[in-house]
Q: What sequence folds into this?
């Protein structure tokens, strides 16, 4: 929800490690105005797949499922969650703060 609120306020902090093309793609996908959002324009999904970020991908191979996955996680059982980050349980109180119009939870943005 924090990320969603920041997106609505047009404030996303990108890590220094991502490429220029990646940052540009994400920025265009996160436009709050759907009329300006990549994928909602005249060429629809072709605008997304044609972006420079996806240049190394052969979408024909992707459709045929012949591309090798860049990362194959190791799992020990169908219920193995070791590849996921741990997060504390969230109670209903945590979410109420996003609906309180009197509080500016993102001061400085």
A:
């Amino acid at each position: 929800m924090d990320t969603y609120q920041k997106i609505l306020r047009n404030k996303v902090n990108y890590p220094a490690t991502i490429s220029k093309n990646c940052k540009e793609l994400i920025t265009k996908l996160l436009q709050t105005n759907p009329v300006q959002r990549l994928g909602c324009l005249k060429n629809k999904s072709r605008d997304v797949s044609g972006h420079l970020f996806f240049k190394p991908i052969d979408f024909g191979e992707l459709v045929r499922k012949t591309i090798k996955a860049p990362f194959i996680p190791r799992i020990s059982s169908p219920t193995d969650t070791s590849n996921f980050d741990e997060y504390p349980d969230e109670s209903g109180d945590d979410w109420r703060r996003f609906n309180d119009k009197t509080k500016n939870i993102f001061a400085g943005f």
Summary: Helices lie at 2-8, 20-29, 45-49, 59-64, 92-99. Residues 20-29 form the longest helix (10 residues). The CA atoms of residues 75 and 82 lie 8 Å apart. The radius of gyration is 19 Å.
